[in-house]
Amino acid sequence: MVNPSAQVAFNSLPDWLTYLEALHPNDIELGLERVRQVYNRLDLNFSQTKVVLLAGTNGKGTSCHLMQQLLCAHGFNVGCYNSPHIHDYRERVTVNANWLSEQQHCDAFQAIEQARGNIALTYFEFGTLAAIYLLAQQSLDYILLEVGLGGRLDATNIVEPDLSIITTIDLDHQDWLGTNREVIGFEKAGIFRAQGKAVCGDLNPPDTVKQQALEKQLDIVWQQQDFCYQIEPQYWSWQGKKNQFNHLNKPNMPIQNASTVLAGLEQLGLELDINLINACFIDFQLAGRWQKISTQPDVIIDVAHNPESIRFMQQQLQQYSHQGKKIAVLGMLKDKDIKTVINTIKADFDAWYLADINQPRGAKATDLQTELTVSDKVSCYQSIQQAYKSALADAQLDDLIVAFGSFWVITDILTD
Predict the structure, then answer these.
(1) What phi and psi, each to the nearest 5 degrees, are found at residue 326?
(2) Are strands 78-81 and 93-95 parallel, antiparallel or unpaired?
(3) Strands ordered across the beta sheet of 219-222
(4) Of all helices (H) and strands (E), which one includes residue 378?
(5) Dihedral sign, CA of 60, 66, 71, 72?
(6) Which is nearest to 188 in space by CA: 175, 170, 204?
(7) Which residue has the higher pLDDT, 78 or 338?
(8) What are the pLDDT digits (tens) for 46-58?
(9) How far apart are CA 413 and CA 416, in angstroms?
(10) For strand 400-404 and strand 298-302, is the pairing parallel, antiparallel, or unpaired?
């Protein structure tokens, strides 16, 4: 652990990131007291900007990016903070979908370093404060902040939102958030503000979320109650409190989450143009979300790593048209629900290429193998790159390779 009282300065983004990785012994340390102290010292002004907080087990990243694209299409200046990144740290902070410069990130890190004094911050906390600082320097109509973990105690929750959105609620990060949907729902509902505006996109929200909405007297809209969607073979339709849109293009994301985003825009009081919406939907693609990166054989990458996201990936897989075998390249973190993930989807693949994730939280390929039977075609490798290259070498031109299980899987494949 780096001495928190030592003030430093670096001239490059890689140097700053190396410093942040050594700054705190823990990857995760939930709580807002330390972050709030530093945030208050920054004295940032968001009075001219509307802030949206997006939490959820799945879909918050894609929802954040879709909302940014839709707001930009309607003529607004929009800043966005997401985590984690896949290829380049600068992916985490965008203004009108564009990255900021390395120098801007370095300046922001320097500002946080000076403001924190003797206060120790984790990598995520430091980066979140720097992102908020960066976005405060821009002339923005909207700032969209993706919650990292949970909601109530996540570093993003230090900012007062004009709108709070929960996409879905399911089991994930159970060591930190709890072992059932009621407890996890309570944590995610921590982004609600008394008498504030909110959207809940979950199809069956836990009672804890409903109770928090009632106690805080929210102006909240609920999926299937105040807004809803219907999927048709080629298109989909959406009904909100004010708008109704038919013949919508299907974006490359769960329609449930796209529906939640439209409800969020309606809660913000925007006049929506169906032509602009459809143009965004048809072009929407977020890296690592059912993303096709190669053909002959077809290769698709997906960050799906928990039961809910795996079920959606399974739907995509079953609808995918191809002639050959389906081959899985899988790596996971050891704190994920490995058993449920593999058992949910194992019947959909003909062969498995399992890989170690060489990170502190990474599971070994042999850990994954225990959930597969001796009759399954399984190979184990010491890295994602090895597993992926072996799958490519063994695949026929009409096969389908799907690499999934963690952001680390996608990062290693795209940077290889």
Answers:
(1) -110, 120
(2) antiparallel
(3) 98-99, 93-95, 78-81, 142-146, 50-55, 163-166, 197-200, 219-222
(4) strand 378-381
(5) positive
(6) 170
(7) 78
(8) 999 999 999 998 8
(9) 5
(10) parallel
Supply the angle between the helices 274-283 and 60-73 in degrees, to the nearest 10: 130
> Whose structure tokens read 């004094």?
117
State which amino acid sits at residue 147. Answer: V
| Residue 305: pLDDT band with limits 50, 70, 90 | confident
Domain ranges for the chain, please list them. Answer: 13-283, 291-414
CA angle (120, 358, 89) in 5-degree steps: 55
pLDDT tens by residue, 1-15: 444 445 678 989 999
pLDDT confidence tier of residue 114, bands split at 50, 70 and 90 = very high
Rounded Cα gap, residues 314 and 36, in angstroms: 41
pLDDT at 23: 81
What is the maximum alpha-carbon separation in the chain? Answer: 62
Helices (H), 137-172: none
Calpha distance 320→279 (Å, rounded): 24
Looking at every residue in the chain, the average pLDDT score rounds to: 90
| DSSP reduced 3-state for 347 | helix
- Does residue 84 have a cis bond before it (omega within 30 degrees)? yes
The whole-angstrom separation of Cα 371 and Cα 369 is 5
Whether 384 shows a pLDDT value over 80: the answer reads: yes
pLDDT tens, residue by residue, 237-279: 999 999 999 999 999 899 999 999 999 999 999 999 999 999 9
Q: How far apart are CA 414 and CA 416, in angstroms?
A: 6
| 369 contacts: CB under 8 Å, gap ≥ 6 | 354, 378, 380
What CA–CA distances, in Å, run from 141 to 105, 201, 229, 264? 21, 24, 28, 15
Q: What is the CATH number of domain 13-283?
A: 3.40.1190.10
C-alpha triplet 46, 44, 48: angle, nearest 5°: 20
Q: Token match 């800043």: residue?
A: 79
Residue tagged 């994730």 (tokens): 357
Fold (CATH) for 291-414: Protein-Tyrosine Phosphatase; Chain A (3.90.190)
